[in-house]
Amino acid sequence: MKAVEIYLLLHLILTASVLVNTFDPITVTVGVISNLWQLFNTHERCDSEWISFNAEGLRADLESKLFGQHIASRVILKAVNGFMSDDNPQKPLVLSLHGRSGTGKNFVSRLIAENIYKEGMDSSFVHVFIATYHFPHKSQIDSYKSQLQQWIKGNATNCERSMFIFDEMDEMNPGLIDSIKSFLNHYKKLDGVSYRKAIFIFLSNAGGEVITETALDFWKEGRNRDEIKLIDLETSLSASAFNDINSGFWHSRLIDDNLVDFFIPFLPLEYRHVVQCAMAEMKAKGLEPDQDVAAELAKDLIYFPKSERVFSVQGCKTIEKRLYHYID
User: What is the pLDDT of residue 33?
Assistant: First the structure.
């Protein structure tokens, strides 16, 4: 058994002993067994056979599968491409994705993972934390901080090219995310572990109102939404997250210390984008794309403002579930 495997085994056992005081024992046991399986399963390795960035693949996916998000597409492609091309980055890549539900934040995270890891989101090197699921109790925030640090340290030890995705940042207990601040900084190593080649992605609905107001202003002025630039929104997004007392970023040192590389807005989707989503979903399911079906599905969704029906309330989130209702 290699030294790193011994370290991680001990780490998992110690984590379980901490978790058992705060979580259901059955859940803890299943979680530990699952992670032990990942650790000793030699199917996937932290090497170029399993981790290899496909820049053209990401570009093609963003162009053909992500609709209505010209800012996100451009910024993410350049950021990930530049980071993955650097053999000696000075810090991890840290992206914070903001926008209404259904605009593509989770979807983009999956596209990034699929173009870096051979196993995509199923890779043992991709780790997803959901605020309301993994950190539900405010009273246990100190335990969560310790557990989170241990998990990130253990996984980064196992593979420096790890990806950590934090969903529902707008519902995370304030102060918790600051526990990983040191991992996002410019340190070469912390206790012998380097985090510089890791990717951290935060997903949040926070800032959705600011983004929507900007998009509406452009629409009212008769301006093309493609004219909206990152500079029009990034500062207000970071300020909105920082000042929202209910957000995981409230007064966060991650923002104060400029550790987030980009605050990326996801614009509310219009009717035409929902049609594109429906057409893409049909293609993904092996169905013949039907413009009439896509148009009918998109038409029946709820839009706002109510009188003008400019932006979709659900975005593309319900397309997959609703599609078969419109197919004969």
Answer: 47
